[in-house]
Amino acid sequence: DAIEVEGVGNLLTETAKCCKPLPGDAVIGFITRGRGVKVHRRDCHNILNLGDGDRDRLIEVDWGGAARSRWNVDITVQAFQRQDLL
Known about the structure:
5% of the residues lie in helices and 22% in strands.
């Protein structure tokens, strides 16, 4: 299952490593030079800080069937040190 790019058929997409969007996140696509569309969270600092010349490379995307796929995620667990914690 793939992320759907508005108005385009089968197109190479990849989630951005900077913001690591997950299904359910509001996302937007950025058309790269030669590497398809990178999918970013809409609140990604790289998207928010795009220069005016690059804003025309943004495209609407949707999770589509990708929302039902398996995703690897990074998690951080914080705990207070105590006996038998692990």
